[in-house]
Specification:
Chain lengths: ~500, ~100
C-alpha cells in the first residue's frame, strides 16, 4: 500500500509501531504533491521546510516514546495535513484566495490550527478556495482554479475545493475546510471524500477570516468517517476567544462510532429530490437509502416545506453579513493598498475596487443593497423571518426522526467554466446544503457511488450538537460499501478507476 | 423590478467600491436578476414570525477583565502597507490649512 493513500488512523498506527517514520511519510506526501499538483492545483502555498521540521520533531517524540514505553501520544503526531487558506496560520501566508490579502502574514494561529498543532500534525500548506469562501467551484479563486482529481476538466466544487481535491488526490491525509452554505459537504461529494460540517457553535472560529458570521463553521475533509470523528474530537470545544463557541462537553466521537443502526429512524425529505437533479445522482442516492434500510434503519418520508426558500434567504443573509465583515479591507491595516491615493475615501474605494474579484464585489453590492435604507425590511428582515420558518421545518422533522438523509449536491462535478457567467446557476449547486447552515445544524457528506464515472455524495443531516449520530450513520453506511476505497485516476474524462476499489 | 444605473452607483458608493463602467452595467443586470429571484419570499406571510439573527441562544458572554499580553506591535504592524513608528499611515482626512 502506498503511504500517501493511508487514512490518518492507519498512518498513526504505523508511526506508533515504528514501521514508518514521520519524515518518510511527510516526504512521500510532498513527493506526491510535486508529482500531481501541477495538474490538480490544490495548494496556494506549500510549506515543505516547516513540514519536515515538524516531522523530525514528531519522530523524536515517537522514538522517545517507544524507548520509554509511553503510550499516551498526541493523536495527530506526524500526520501530514492541509489547511484551507481562510484559516490564519502564524507566519504562513493566508490569502483567502484574494488579491486583497496577497502577502498577508497572520500574527497568530486560528484556534483550530493551534489545536491540530497541539495534536502534533504536520502542515503541508494552505489550500485553494473561492475568494473569501464565496463560491461553489473554486473558480472564484483570484489565483487559479483547482481541478477535480476524478476528471481534470471539471471543478472540484467549492469553496473548500482545494482541501477536498488534496485529500482525494492523496496530496494530504486530511484537511480543514469551512462551510457557510455547503462549502465542505459539496466539494467532498464532488471529489469522493468525507466532509463534515459541525453544528454552529461546536467549533471555534477564532482566526477563521469571517464571511457570514451567523453561518460560518469550520469542518473537516477526510478519506473516511473514522478520521472525521477523530478530527472533530480534536477541534471541537469551548474557546474563550470566540463568544459564539458553546461550552458543552466534547464526546469522544471516535469511540462512539458503531456500525449498528438497526431501528434508527431516518427521514427522507421529499423536497431534496426535486427538479434540476441529475437522474444518475438520484438513482445513486436512492440506492444508498436502500442500503441504510438493509442495515436495519427505518426510512420515513418527511417534508421540509420551506426548502425552496432557502436559496433566496441565504443569498440575502450571507451577502448582508459579508458586506459588513469585508468592510475591514481598506488598504490601511494589511493587504493590498491602491498606490497614489491622496484622499482617504479614494484609498478605500480604489483598494477595494482593485483588490476584490467579481463574485466578492457582487455579494458586497447585494448585501449593501439588502441592508440599505428603504430595502432593509423588504429583503434582510424578510429573509431573517423566513429563516425562522426553515428552522421550524427541521425542528418538526426531528420530532419524528433521528437524522435526515438526502443528496449532497443535485449534480456531479460540472465542467470548468460551465457556470461562471451565470451567478444564479452557480448558486443552485448549493440548494441541498444551504438550509442546514441557516438552521445551524450538523451534516456530513459520505461517498455513495458514481454517476457517469464521477463521485456522488450522500448527506446525513442531524440535530444540533448531535454529531455522534450522523457520524454513526455515515460510518455504518461506509463500512458496508466499497466507495471510500476508490481512488481517482487523475486524468481527463476518465472518472472512476474500477481497479481502485 | 430592474435596478437603475443610479441605484447601482449609489450602492457602490455606500460599499466604498470603485467600479468600472463595464462592472456597473454587468452588476445592474446580475443584481436585478438575483433580486427578482429573491422576490419569491414576498409570497410568504411572515407577519407573526420573529426573525432569526443567529441560532444559538447565547447572550452577552462575559469574562473577567484581566490584563493579559497583547500581540507584539511589530507583528501586527508588519502587515501595514504604510506605517510610521507604531502608527498606521493614511492619506489626509482633514484639509490642511495653506
Amino acid at each position: 500500500m502506498e503511504l500517501t493513500s493511508l487514512t490518518i488512523l492507519e498512518a498513526g498506527r504505523l508511526l506508533r509501531r515504528g514501521e514508518v517514520s514521520a519524515v518518510e511519510l511527510t516526504e512521500s506526501v510532498l513527493d506526491r504533491i510535486v508529482a500531481v499538483d501541477n495538474q490538480v492545483r490544490a495548494f496556494l502555498t506549500l510549506t515543505p521546510e516547516l513540514a519536515l521540521e515538524q516531522a523530525r520533531a514528531a519522530d523524536e517524540r515517537l522514538t522517545a516514546a517507544r524507548r520509554s514505553g509511553e503510550g499516551d501520544l498526541p493523536a495527530l503526531l506526524g500526520i501530514p495535513m492541509a489547511v484551507k487558506d481562510v484559516l490564519c496560520t502564524e507566519g504562513v501566508p493566508t490569502t483567502c484566495g484574494s488579491r486583497i490579502l496577497e502577502g498577508f502574514l497572520p500574527p497568530y494561529d486560528a484556534t483550530v490550527v493551534a489545536r491540530l498543532e497541539q495534536a502534533g500534525y504536520v502542515l503541508l500548506g494552505k489550500t485553494n478556495t473561492d475568494e473569501f469562501a464565496m463560491g461553489s467551484s473554486t473558480e472564484n479563486s483570484a489565483y487559479f482554479p483547482t481541478r477535480n482529481p476524478w476528471d481534470l476538466s471539471r471543478v472540484p466544487g467549492g469553496s473548500s475545493g482545494g482541501s477536498a481535491a488534496a485529500v482525494a488526490a492523496h496530496e494530504a491525509l486530511g484537511a480543514l475546510g469551512t462551510d457557510t452554505g455547503g462549502s465542505v459537504r459539496q466539494p467532498a461529494a464532488l471529489c469522493g471524500v468525507v466532509g463534515l460540517k459541525p453544528t454552529y457553535g461546536r467549533v471555534s472560529r477564532y482566526g477563521l477570516v469571517a464571511f457570514a458570521s451567523s453561518l460560518d463553521q469550520v469542518g473537516t475533509l477526510t478519506r473516511d468517517v473514522a478520521d472525521s470523528a477523530l478530527l472533530l474530537s480534536i477541534i471541537a470545544g469551548h474557546d474563550a476567544q470566540d463568544s459564539t463557541c458553546v461550552d458543552l462537553p466534547v464526546p469522544n466521537y471516535l469511540e462512539a462510532l458503531s456500525p449498528e443502526i438497526a431501528g434508527l429512524r431516518i427521514g427522507v425529505p421529499e423536497e431534496y429530490f426535486g427538479p434540476g437533479m441529475d437522474p444518475g445522482v438520484e438513482a445513486t442516492v436512492r440506492e444508498a437509502l436502500g442500503q441504510l434500510e438493509a442495515l436495519g434503519a427505518r426510512l420515513e418520508r418527511v417534508s421540509l416545506p420551506h426548502t425552496s426558500y432557502a436559496l433566496p434567504v441565504y443569498y440575502l443573509i450571507a451577502p448582508a453579513e459579508a458586506s459588513s465583515n469585508l468592510a475591514r479591507y481598506d488598504g490601511v491595516k494589511y493587504g493590498h493598498a491602491a498606490p497614489g491615493a491622496d484622499e482617504l475615501w479614494e484609498l478605500y474605494k480604489r483598494t477595494r475596487g482593485e483588490g476584490f474579484g467579481a463574485e466578492v464585489k457582487r455579494r458586497i453590492m447585494l448585501g449593501t443593497y439588502a441592508l440599505s435604507a428603504g430595502y432593509y425590511d423588504a429583503f434582510y428582515l424578510k429573509a431573517q423571518k423566513v429563516r425562522t420558518l426553515i428552522r421550524q421545518d427541521f425542528d418538526r422533522a426531528f420530532e419524528k426522526v433521528d437524522v435526515l438523509a438526502a443528496p449532497t449536491s443535485p449534480t456531479v462535478a460540472f465542467p470548468i467554466g460551465a457556470r461562471v457567467e451565470d451567478p444564479l446557476q452557480m448558486y443552485l449547486s448549493d440548494i441541498y446544503t444551504l438550509s442546514l447552515n441557516l438552521a445551524g445544524l450538523c451534516g456530513i457528506s459520505v461517498p455513495c457511488g458514481f454517476a457517469d464515472g464521477l463521485p456522488v455524495g450522500l448527506q446525513i443531516l442531524g440535530r444540533a450538537f448531535d454529531e455522534a449520530t450522523i457520524l454513526r450513520v455515515a460510518y455504518a453506511y461506509e463500512q458496508s460499501t466499497p466507495w471510500h476505497t476508490c481512488h481517482p485516476s487523475l486524468s481527463v474524462g476518465q472518472g472512476a478507476d474500477p481497479a481502485g476499489c | 423590478m430592474p435596478l437603475t444605473r443610479q441605484e447601482v452607483e449609489h450602492i457602490a458608493e455606500l460599499a466604498k467600491l470603485a467600479l468600472s463602467q463595464e462592472e456597473i452595467e454587468r452588476f445592474q443586470e446580475q443584481l436585478s436578476a438575483i433580486l427578482d429571484y429573491a422576490a419569491v419570499l414576498q409570497r410568504l406571510d411572515t407577519e407573526a414570525i420573529p426573525p432569526t439573527a443567529q441560532v444559538i441562544e447565547l447572550k452577552n458572554v462575559m469574562r473577567a477583565d484581566e490584563v493579559s499580553p497583547s500581540l507584539p506591535v511589530e507583528d501586527v504592524l508588519g502587515n501595514a502597507p504604510s506605517r510610521r513608528d507604531s502608527y498606521f499611515c493614511v492619506p489626509p482626512v482633514i484639509e490642511v490649512a495653506p
